[in-house]
Structures are given as structure tokens and as C-alpha cells.
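Input record, target 12 of the design panel.
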């Protein structure tokens, strides 16, 4: 958990603990004191913001509703994931990776220390690139693109709680799809090698997946489902939010012992994400897609979420600040 998120959590707990009569006194004081009002507004805002890196099951329910309760895909449920809730076809064909990738992979293992997050991401970048070469869209389709370090937020219209953070990987279409949550269909979170892919990481990945899912539903995408993965380079867990909002999770795979299975599943989720968006139709029909979005946006004054590319990357968190 980062330093900022610690303060946010503390402010939220303290704000919620303030009795209603004292909150009314704050309002009375702020009415005649602009400086006090600005402080109290900031305090209330911070207290109602949570980062995906420190999100809890309760937070996700508060933001997105009980229908998205992630309990059954968490280790806390005690299921042990002996039966996967996100299953894939048993006859998935093996993926033949290129010789250039094999050489590069061997060099990364030989020369890179994967105990740092930036170098781990380089490793995952190479894997993602190889998978995308196997899942490239047809020439008549728009360009499939993988975005990294993207800022996204969502505020619950019912509770006012805001989920805000910067995700590691988002897959979408077109040159500008990184500016529209609804044009994305796959989310990935990367951690340093050796980091346990436990509930904290799963909840963090689900946070971004749910933001995308809600945006796709709001703009009436034919298939609002969203796929995801969480990995430390060695261990991989695959996730899905189905069209009906049902959450699914695979068991954990280790690339050292399950290399064939991981490659098959990576190709499957990338292809499924590619095919789940209406923007995979030929470019000549894009005008109709844009009209659909304009019509959907006209029904609501503003979206409860924001999404933008980070052009200046924030400093990397140290392991002490974010062990997960």
C-alpha cells in the first residue's frame, strides 16, 4: 500500500467516524469561512477516494453494487480454486512462439534482475507483444493496441465513493481508444517477481475491469464483458466479467511448469477481448459506432468515470511502499 493511500484510508475512516451533529457544526463554520470550507471539502473528497492498490471487497461493493461482490473468486472464500469459475475450451491449440522471442526470453532471464517492477514489466511486455502477433485483427479491422500506465477513475452515483488509480495494461482498438474506457476489453496488472498473486492483486485488477465493464454497459456495447490477468512474470491468474456481470477466475498457472497452458490461455483472452467489441467491425461502419456512442452519451449529462493516458509516468513505487 502506497503512502498516499494510507493517508486516504485514514482520512476516510476518521471522516466516517465524525458524528452527524459535529458534521453540521463544520458546515455552519464553513458557511462564513471560505478557507475552512475549502479544507473541509478537500477532507471529505479524500475521505471518499480509494486507490485500486488498497481497495477492499467492501469498497468494490460500495462503488459498484452487491451484484459485483467478488467474494467467491477470492482466497478468503476458502474455495481453493480447485474448480475454476473461468474455464476455457479444453481443445485450445498450442501457441508456437517465434525463435526471436525464445532468444529474447533467454537473454532477459540471463541479464535482467526480475525483482524490480520495471524489469518485470519488460518481461511481460515481450510476452504480450508475442501474443499480439498471434492475435492480430483482420486487415479490415481497426488497429489493436496495448496501453500502459493509464489513469482511470469511477465515482458511484449512489454512494459518492470514488475509485481512482493508474492501471498497468489495457487492450483496445484504434489510435484514440485509450481515451475511452468503453473501447477497451482487457485489463492487466503486473507485479514484481516473487509477489504473491493473492486477493489484494485480484481486487486491484478487478477494480479496473469493473470500470471498463460499467463504461461498456453504459454505452450499450453488444458485449460488455471484460477480460483480465494478474501476473508477476512467473505466476498468472486470468479473470473475466461476463456480459451479465458474473465474475470468473482461473486457477493460478506458473510459466516455469505450465508454459504451454499459459500461452494458450493468453492467446484465448487476447482473442476473446479482440472479438468482444463492436469496434472490431470493418472501418467503414465506424460512423455508426460513433453515432451509437453520441446517442448513449446524450441520455446522461456526464459519465461517472474519467480515463486518460499518462504522458508523464509517475515515479515507480518502492517495494517498501507497495509490497503487493
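The sequence produced for target 12 reads:
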Amino acid at each position: 500500500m502506497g503512502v498516499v493511500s494510507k493517508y486516504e484510508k485514514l482520512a476516510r475512516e476518521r471522516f466516517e467516524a465524525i458524528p452527524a451533529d459535529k458534521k453540521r457544526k463544520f458546515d455552519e463554520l464553513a458557511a462564513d469561512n471560505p478557507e475552512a470550507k475549502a479544507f473541509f471539502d478537500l477532507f471529505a473528497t479524500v475521505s471518499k477516494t480509494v486507490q485500486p492498490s488498497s481497495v477492499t471487497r467492501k469498497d468494490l461493493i460500495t462503488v459498484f453494487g452487491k451484484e459485483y461482490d467478488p467474494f467467491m473468486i477470492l482466497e478468503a472464500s476458502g474455495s481453493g480454486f480447485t474448480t475454476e469459475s473461468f474455464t476455457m475450451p479444453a481443445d485450445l491449440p498450442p501457441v508456437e512462439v517465434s525463435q526471436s522471442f525464445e532468444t529474447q526470453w533467454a537473454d532477459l532471464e540471463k541479464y535482467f534482475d526480475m525483482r524490480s517492477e520495471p524489469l518485470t514489466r519488460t518481461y511481460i511486455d515481450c510476452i504480450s507483444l508475442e501474443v499480439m502477433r498471434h492475435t492480430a485483427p483482420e486487415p479490415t479491422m481497426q488497429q489493436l493496441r496495448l496501453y500502459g500506465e493509464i489513469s482511470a477513475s469511477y465515482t458511484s452515483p449512489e454512494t459518492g465513493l470514488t475509485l481512482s488509480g493508474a492501471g498497468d495494461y489495457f487492450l483496445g482498438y484504434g489510435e484514440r481508444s485509450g481515451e475511452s474506457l468503453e473501447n477497451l476489453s482487457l485489463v492487466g496488472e503486473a507485479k514484481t517477481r516473487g509477489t504473491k498473486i493473492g486477493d489484494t492483486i485480484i481486487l486491484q485488477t478487478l477494480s479496473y475491469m469493473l470500470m471498463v465493464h460499467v463504461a461498456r454497459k453504459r454505452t450499450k456495447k453488444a458485449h460488455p464483458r471484460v477480460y483480465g490477468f494478474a501476473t508477476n512474470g512467473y505466476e498468472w491468474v486470468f479473470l473475466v466479467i461476463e456480459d451479465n456481470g458474473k465474475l470468473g477466475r482461473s486457477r493460478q498457472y506458473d510459466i516455469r511448469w505450465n508454459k504451454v497452458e499459459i500461452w494458450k490461455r493468453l492467446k484465448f483472452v487476447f482473442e476473446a477481448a479482440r472479438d468482444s467489441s463492436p469496434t472490431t467491425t470493418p472501418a467503414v461502419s465506424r460512423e455508426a459506432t460513433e453515432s451509437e456512442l453520441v446517442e448513449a452519451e446524450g441520455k446522461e449529462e456526464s459519465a461517472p468515470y474519467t480515463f486518460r493516458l499518462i504522458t508523464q509516468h509517475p515515479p515507480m513505487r518502492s517495494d517498501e511502499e507497495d509490497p503487493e
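Residues 1-5, 278-301, 309-324 have pLDDT under 50 and may be disordered.
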